[in-house]
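The passage that follows is intended for readers who have already worked through the single-chain material. We present the inputs for a multi-component assembly, then the predicted structure in tokenized form, and finally a short commentary. You are encouraged to pause after the input and sketch how you expect the pieces to fit together before reading on.
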Amino acid sequence: MRSPDDLYAVVPAGGSGTRLWPLSRAAHPKFFQPLTGTARSLLQATFDRLRPLVGPERICVVTGVDHAAGVARQLPELPEHNIMVEPAPRDSCAAIALAAAIIERRHPGALMASFAADHLIQDEEVFRRTVVEATAGASDGLLMTVGIMPTRPETGYGYVQCSEKVRPSTVQKVAKYREKPPLDVAKQFVESGKYLWNAGMFIWRTDVFLARLAEYRPDIAKLIQEIAAAWGTPQGAEVLGTLWPTVPRIAVEYAVMEPAAADGRVGTVPGDFGWSDIGDFETVATLLGSDESEATVVDLSGEPAEGPSVVGLDSDGLVVLPRRGRVVAALDVHDLIVVDTEDALLLCRRDRAQDIKKLIELLRERGAEAHV
Amino acid sequence: MRSPDDLYAVVPAGGSGTRLWPLSRAAHPKFFQPLTGTARSLLQATFDRLRPLVGPERICVVTGVDHAAGVARQLPELPEHNIMVEPAPRDSCAAIALAAAIIERRHPGALMASFAADHLIQDEEVFRRTVVEATAGASDGLLMTVGIMPTRPETGYGYVQCSEKVRPSTVQKVAKYREKPPLDVAKQFVESGKYLWNAGMFIWRTDVFLARLAEYRPDIAKLIQEIAAAWGTPQGAEVLGTLWPTVPRIAVEYAVMEPAAADGRVGTVPGDFGWSDIGDFETVATLLGSDESEATVVDLSGEPAEGPSVVGLDSDGLVVLPRRGRVVAALDVHDLIVVDTEDALLLCRRDRAQDIKKLIELLRERGAEAHV
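Having made your guess, compare it with the prediction:
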């Protein structure tokens, strides 16, 4: 299946991945980290995955001022004018709308597909085939999403509720977006077979998305269109700097997708390609770790180690992210996550990994701001 | 009390302090570490403590080939010819006998006092006064030891059993050396008031010690005298290199002190000056740590920290030896020793600190030889 000639890929690169501290930091967020099983970062892996679909000229990354240089260096083949720098974070609706408006001016009626910078996908061929399937619905004027076929009753994700099929394609209408559910509801969702995980993957025609934005959030649409009109002109930076801070902060799901779904304008194709958002150390260990006798060791260096990185006596159930050249030696230690980075060491009981965010707050309170 | 004019101090600097790994290493043993509450190392603190007693010209350090350079650099005021380098470790009898024989040739009938390089003493004035008291017994021909007044029924030390007083001094005769006792025996020792800890502190006339050595271990005495006769001559290194490896390995307690005690030739003065051998991390924490809410933190850097070095959430009972510039963040972690060094991280349950030696053996087995 060939990808459509007018397809662009957009990658919003934001968020810090707090549950992966101290690996992921405000200054070195998750997407810059080599959490892929190779030396490539999640951002680079995202670029590598999209490149066969659209080519480097049609990949756009929307990122913050503090990460623009990192994006430029990690993706040397990405054209400079495809790095769109937000003066301040305004949530996903602003970032995606900006990209849509700029692409629409470059290529009216283009198809645009948007994917997070920090997700991991195991079967890239199936991923690309699924995106191309979704473009069928997008060409027909639907705001499309790729929903992930759920593999467990996860309470940490939102879901999309599917309704009737749109023949003759694999496209299904989306009846509703559903917030992160409690466990019993999540179980019902998975058993029904009618719910998919919302992984923030969108495919649409830029003209259609901008029309829907103008309809549901005319305030945002107006600001974004003014910014896009000035983009690349001598007044561009001035207009962006003045208007951007006034753009409302809202996620694209709330601003556009939910009302559009209620109006029967959202479609989905189910994705089954080994997706993960690499959201916490347990997931990192499961996907990228190698099991040794006392520990699951996640070596992100991409180089063969010279000696053991973990040695445990009367110890088990450890999850260790070691540093090159250092050894972690454990004596009678159990079920502990150990993350050893240059300037911070995390020790966390395995069943408390969801609370790392609270630990970061405490670090800030105690004056360890430089380490978070 | 003035110290005798003919007193020399000898410091055997050997042993690696395995229970303090990874702080203490084969290559960087305990005596080189700043385990003193200041930036000075234990060796430097030992030198500082002895200097007012005898002056730098009369302090001799006996050490191994791998630590000679470290001793020379840590003690720039120590005369070079007072650094006696053993070609290979032959235990304490050989080291002490070599120093005694060399001092005897430089200063016949000298008084010699020998102290470990890696012990901590809190009240140095009392320490020096006690040593001078002991020289009275040594001048009279006894092999003297300073025994430490026990503060607890410690099972990790040997004891000396005192008998009658030698009037009019504070000197008591030693009836017997006792091996590390089981707890019930240790309790009896402490309750009786007649036992002192053997801290390896000896004071004697060099001629007397060498005569006793010749009597109890003529084999060792003969080799040591040959080596000492050649010491400092053009043949010195050749003789040392040839004969030293043939010197029997034995502790001075077994070779000389025990048989001499049986012959009524050993005396002691009790020492009560805040002595510690800084033998494990619990002791290090008690003596050098500062208590923070979740952890006892031992900062050996000697510099004020810029931010917190330990931050714990739902954590307590931690003993942390942090590294400068790094933060240890703990989430739901309890009663754990955390020692963060440049190339190794130790995590050890507090009640297993005595088994670190086993962990080191495992590290060797697993090929982490470079880290031990």
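Commentary: The interface with chain A takes residues 21-22, 307-308, 311, 313-314, 325-333, 336, 338, 340, 342-349, 351-352, 355-356, 358-359, 362-363, 366-371 of chain B (CB under 8 Å). The radius of gyration of chain B is 21 Å. How closely did your sketch match?
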